[in-house]
Amino acid sequence: MASIARCLRAARPSTLSRLAQTPCARSHWQPVVSLRAFSASPIRDIRKYTKDHEWIDLNADKTAGVIGISEYAAEELGDVVYVELPEEGKEVSAGDAIGAVESVKSAADINAPIACKVTGINLALEEKPGTINQVPEDDSHGGGWIAKVQVDEQGVKDFDTLMDAEEYKAFTGAEH
């Protein structure tokens, strides 16, 4: 039985051009003009970072998002032993403290990257705070995200001022 990958493999363009130039016995055969490659859309929402090492993912219409701490911050903190989660329903401005992370090395506040309203929290972090060290930038059910938020117009403006992944990588590289 052939694997799915072999079944979905697209023909090389050079093979198609040779086929198009080869005379055919059937007169109704038409060469393939274009190919549509098998692709997948990225599953990640729009992610940006703060200089305080928090990240936020916004959905496509920029009305809801997920907040967490970056992988860089998780590595710098060391083994996380306690996470103080924000209150659901709390409305915050960009830069306001929404929680805290304590590790064997130090403690740090978790700041809101943008103006938003907290709509959900990751209760799993109360029992297993070390999840932040394992998967800090995972916003799935078992990930290390901190809070789910609702975003308004001011939050979208704040979001536009944050660093994208490339800028954040350069920023953290400069800190070493």
Written overview of the protein:
The chain is of the alpha+beta class and 176 residues long. Helix content is 27%, strand content 26%. The protein has helices at 4-8, 13-21, 71-77, 124-127, 131-134, 153-160, 165-175, and strands spanning 46-49, 54-58, 64-69, 80-84, 91-92, 97-103, 107-111, 116-121, 147-151. The N and C termini lie far apart (52 Å). Residues 1-20, 32-36 and 38-44 have low confidence and may be disordered.
Please outline the helices and strands:
Layout: H1 4-8, H2 13-21, E1 46-49, E2 54-58, E3 64-69, H3 71-77, E4 80-84, E5 91-92, E6 97-103, E7 107-111, E8 116-121, H4 124-127, H5 131-134, E9 147-151, H6 153-160, H7 165-175
Antiparallel strand pairs: 1-2, 2-3, 3-9, 4-6, 5-8, 6-7, 8-9
Instruction: Please summarize the sheet with the most strands.
Output: 6 strands, antiparallel
Rg for CA atoms: 23 Å
Gross morphology is globular
Q: What is the number of E strands?
A: 9
Brief synopsis:
The chain is an alpha+beta fold. The chain contains seven helices and nine strands, in the order H-H-E-E-E-H-E-E-E-E-E-H-H-E-H-H.
